[in-house]
Amino acid sequence: MSCKGEANTPFTNVFPVHCARSEQYTTNTPVESHPPPPLPRRIASLDLCSLQLSSSSSPAVGRSISSMASKLAEAAGGGGGEPSPADVYSSEMTPLQNHVAFFDRNKDGIIYPSETYEGLRAIGAGVALSAVGALFINGGLGPKTIPENAKARFKLPIYINNIHKGKHGSDSGVYDENGRLVHEKFEQIFKKHAHTRPDALTGQELKELLQANREPKDFKGWLGGFAEWKVLFYLCKDKDGFLHKDTVRAVYDGSLFVKMEQDRRSAKKK
Q1: Which of 81, 110, 142 delimits the end of a domain?
Q2: Nearest Cα residue to 123 out of 270, 257, 268, 227
Q3: Residue 250 near residue 256 (C-beta atoms within 8 A)
Q4: How many domains does the chain have?
Q5: What pLDDT, in 10s, does the model give residues 242-265?
Q6: Are 157 and 110 in contact (CB under 8 A)?
Q7: What is the pLDDT of residues 185-239, one digit of tens each?
Q8: Integer CA distances (angstroms), 6 to 12, 93, 227, 270, in order
Q9: Any idea of the CA torsion for 86, 90, 95, 99, to the nearest 10 degrees?
């Protein structure tokens, strides 16, 4: 099998094309055969001999060569590398991933403390709270989500695709082990602890919730739950001191922080 065109017309104006299955060129003049340089596995698997160059039309020749070049470039660019952390955005994300993705300001799939700080500032947290919060959040979640082969572990990056590994104990159980919402657990928060209003929590009722969620000797879990809920209550309670059910739901499904940032931007423009 060869990569020649029509038998009676030599390719005198086209550069020779080396065939992966033959040691011949498409010209009629014998030339010394050389083995092709090694190619990546995906490129080497391409059947270059399937390109049929037509000598009757130089545009057709050009199209065939362009097609070959495109296939080579595509194979070289997408072949066999390690998955990127940003790939998390190319498929359906869990509610827990959506919850933290707000803080991934450059959308590369990794959240560094500086991005957590920027995100907290964007939703109305002060400088001190944002700084402490960034160190606390990344310090607690980063080591749990970093892949084994990752570099720069000292920078405390949070990998969104592994955020389910960062779940702490003594929580409400609204997220399952894979980061999906458990709606029954969400409803139980208000059925059990919303005594003043069925659709909101007061500061005292929130304290009751945190105490009910505590697991014995799970001090890290106690601290994590306390910090999360207290910051949420501080930023999102209404003027009467109520944290509304819709607000809490929006926290869990990942939509609240985006809306808070948009509202703050709109307020600044007025």
Answers
A1: 81
A2: 257
A3: yes
A4: 2
A5: 999 999 999 999 999 999 999 999
A6: yes
A7: 999 999 999 999 999 999 999 999 999 999 998 888 888 889 999 999 999 999 9
A8: 13, 54, 76, 73
A9: 40
* pTM of the shown model: 0.66
Write out the DSSP string of 145-209.
Answer: H--TT-S-GGG--EEGGGGGGG--SSS---B-TTS-B-HHHHHHHHHHH--SBTTEE-HHHHHHH
Q: Within this chain, do residues 42 and 160 fall inside the same structural domain, yes or no?
A: no
Give the Cα separation of 40 and 109 in Å (integer).
27
Round to whole Å and give the CA distance between 73 and 117.
Answer: 40
Q: Last residue of some domain: 81, 116, 143?
A: 81
Give the tokens for residue 200: 């909101």
Are the CB atoms for 13 and 61 separated by under 8 Å?
no
Q: Which amino acid does the sequence have at 264?
A: R
Q: Which two tokens stand for residue 7?
A: 């038998």
Query: Which residue type occupies 207?
Result: K
Output the CA angle 229-142-254, nearest 5 degrees: 45
- Helix intervals (H) in the chain: 41-44, 58-78, 95-101, 113-122, 127-145, 183-193, 203-213, 219-236, 245-253, 256-269
